[in-house]
Design a protein that fits this description.
With about 325 residues, this protein is of the alpha+beta class. The protein has 8 helices and 14 strands. The chain is globular.
């Protein structure tokens, strides 16, 4: 499924796109109540980012607002409602990047920070580093006053049952249901600057401190005013190997490809490696779009021309 929204020449234009993960969602596997609940949650997050842009805010502020809302909603695999590791903990990863200077911040393996995307933003704005992990990242969070919670805040019964099912059925290393509930947002503001943010709880039953593509700059998250802002969701190992987010931008910047063509080509490379997933993008010119190789992807977008749409399944 593909969508694009393009600015009119010469007019100031802002736009935002969000995702709540790609996966095996179909009209046959989701009932009407589930569809309504996920669309409502996506709408809250989309409107949080849209309101920032509509009031003249930056793309970076908009994507952080949208992803924070998704982290707080237990329907998605980020923040509250994150999946459990094999040992029954919630370990969270997030990244942010802005396209004007290619400033970036990322964290992984955090267990007490309510909104990991806000911690990633603090790493970018208030530290000399790009990527912090585990206990050190949360020491920095406390120093910066980033809100902390008891780990029980993240736990939900539905995610706990997913872990028990994986263990009981010995489903293997990865989420057999292909429910990649990673969340993300990309935006372009009225000044033409782009930004991206991504947040995740990783894979159900993950072990050994496994980290996926979401917090890795250039893999699951990237932003460059010379090309686009990208946020990814899917089978992280393949997205890392293909450096998906940066590769899309490189194809646009160096090869002259359009964002949709570049996105679909790189997802094809992921597929050749045995991976699946989805991508959202926003360009400095005001285009937004989606592409995914799974049956569905929770998604939405809005812009200054009045567009506001939500989707879950392929073909919508």
């Amino acid at each position: 499924m593909t969508d694009t929204s393009k600015t009119e020449a010469g007019k100031s234009h802002w736009a935002i796109a969000i995702h709540g993960g790609a996966g095996a969602m179909t009209p046959e596997t989701m009932d009407a109540a589930g569809v309504a609940a996920h669309e409502a949650a996506l709408g809250v997050a989309l409107d949080a980012g849209r309101d920032v842009l509509a009031s003249g805010g930056t793309a970076l502020d908009a994507v952080c607002a949208a992803v924070s809302a998704l982290e707080d909603d237990p329907h998605f695999n980020a923040g509250r409602g994150a999946v459990f590791t094999y040992h029954g903990t919630n370990e969270l990863d997030a990244a942010v990047m802005e396209g004007a200077t290619r400033g970036a911040g990322a964290v992984c393996g955090v267990t007490h920070t309510r909104n990991p995307v806000q911690l990633a933003r603090a790493v970018m704005d208030k530290s000399p580093h790009v990527f912090l992990s585990g206990a050190g990242a949360e020491e920095f969070a406390r120093e910066q006053g980033v809100p902390q919670v008891d780990p029980d805040w993240f736990a939900t019964e539905a995610r706990w049952q997913q872990l028990q099912e994986l263990k009981a059925k010995k489903l293997g290393w990865f989420d057999a249901g292909l429910k990649y509930g990673t969340v993300g947002a990309v935006a372009v503001d009225a000044s033409g600057h782009v930004a991206a943010a991504t947040s995740t709880g990783g894979l159900t039953g993950k072990r050994w401190g496994r980290i996926g593509d979401s917090p890795l700059i250039g893999a699951g998250t990237y932003a460059d005013d010379r090309a686009a802002a990208i946020s990814c969701t899917g089978s992280g190992e393949q997205f890392i190997r293909a450096a998906v987010a940066h590769e899309i931008c490189a194809r646009m910047r160096l090869g002259g490809e359009g964002p949709q063509a570049a996105t679909e080509a790189v997802l094809g490379e992921v597929g050749a490696m045995g991976g699946v997933g989805g991508v959202i993008y926003a360009t400095p010119g005001g285009e937004t779009g989606f592409a995914f190789t799974t049956p569905g992807m929770f998604r939405g977008r809005a812009d200054s021309a009045g567009l506001r749409e939500l989707g879950i399944f392929g073909g919508e």
